[in-house]
Design a protein that fits this description.
- There is one protein chain.
- Helices cover 42% and strands 14% of the residues.
- It is an alpha/beta fold.
- The strands form 4 sheets. Strands 2-1-3-4-5-10 form a 6-stranded parallel β-sheet, sandwiched between helices. Strands 6-9 form a two-stranded parallel ribbon.
- The longest helix is centred in the first third of the chain and has 21 residues.
- It binds guanosine-5'-diphosphate-beta-L-fucopyranose (GFB).
């Protein structure tokens, strides 16, 4: 992307979008197009088309979306499928109408089947049934991938799609009902430490395994793909190692410095047993993770304590 390019980062208040903006600014991109929810509802086709007409972006990052952890996905299936379908369709079609030079669409590791062979390769897409708790989100994200591929095939659009694993970092959602596991654990252990509580409850059996990629690593991958990749196949962004939820809870307990015990609420769903990403494609393109998990969690915990711990929500 040229330094004077007009770059539209959707979802710039979210985990990925905010990290993208920080990194683009650090690299000297001065013409960023940003609009928050009050300014532009991405589910509204007419409003999105008008916004593209007026702002004329050259590049678009689709980091906007309705996202959440296992409980939010399970509780609000209509929101997860409708919002994400509309956002993908409106952004991708408007990009086509306004001749956007290149668009990067962000999917998720949950697009892969629940029992996909591990590690999951890009070719495993649509090879089996999805995890029921997040199938609504996954179907919308798969539709977004297919939109990118269809506009490339029919109209020659340079739209690419990346599938990040579970992400974490600053500006994550720390609401215990809607967040992903890592921010939830940071908050639970932090509040338990302050309250001198005897125990912290972790959902599920603790046996599922997940990968956690720091959002700054993910952003480096996205910008790298924008530079070097232009093809219809999706590309995984993985953490290159995984960990069980029990091990993760113990690590967070240690980082936060909570002295009590961990109990598992097995009445809560586990979700997919394991989600390991095969990263050979993106590794061959020259990207690797740089932020080790413990270091990344420590930095995120520092950020949480400085910015969020006093706020409820
Ligand atoms: O991060 P998480 O909500 O999403 O949960 P998924 C990961 C694992 O952590 C599950 C367990 O086995 C949870 O049961 N867990 C333990 C907890 N304690 C907690 C807690 O306090 N909060 C939460 N949230 N989980 C998501 C999808 O799946 O992955 C999304 O629902 C998206 O659509 C995302 O794809 C990447 O990893 O199971």
């Amino acid at each position: 992307m040229e330094r004077d390019a007009r770059i539209y980062v959707t979802g710039h208040n979210g985990l990925v979008g905010s990290a993208l903006v920080r990194e683009l600014q650090r690299r000297g991109y001065g013409d960023l197009i940003l609009a928050d929810r009050a300014q532009l509802d991405l589910r509204e086709q007419t409003a999105v088309r008008k916004f593209f007409r007026e702002t004329r972006p050259n590049y678009v990052f689709v980091a906007a979306g309705k996202v959440g952890g296992i409980l939010a996905n399970d509780s609000y299936p209509a929101d997860f499928i409708y919002d994400n379908l509309m956002i993908a369709a409106n952004l991708i079609h408007s990009a086509y109408e306004r001749n956007v030079r290149k668009l990067l669409y962000l999917g998720s590791s949950c697009v892969y089947p629940k029992y996909a062979p591990q590690p999951m390769c890009e070719e495993d897409l649509l090879s089996g049934p999805l995890e029921p708790t997040n199938q609504w989100y996954a179907v919308a994200k798969i539709a977004g991938i297919k939109l990118c591929q269809a506009y490339r095939r029919q109209h020659g659009c340079s739209y690419i799609a990346a599938m990040p694993t579970n992400l974490y970092g600053p500006y994550d959602n720390f609401n215990l009902n809607t967040s992903h596991v890592l921010p939830a654990l940071l908050r639970k252990f932090h509040e338990a430490k302050l309250a001198d509580a005897r125990q912290v409850t972790v959902w599920g059996t603790g046996k599922p395994r997940r990968e956690f990629c720091h959002v700054d690593d993910c952003v480096a991958a996205c910008l790298h793909l924008m530079d070097v990749y232009d093809s219809e196949e999706i590309v995984n962004i993985g953490a290159e190692s995984d960990i069980s939820i029990r091990e993760l809870a113990e690590l967070v307990q240690d980082i936060v410095g909570f002295q009590g015990e961990i109990v598992f609420d097995t009445g809560r769903p586990d979700g997919s047993p394991v989600k390991r990403m095969d990263t050979s494609v993106i590794n061959a393109l020259g990207w690797h993770t740089a932020i080790e998990l413990e270091q990344g969690i420590r930095a995120t915990y520092d950020w949480y304590v400085r910015h969020k711990a006093d706020h409820r929500g």
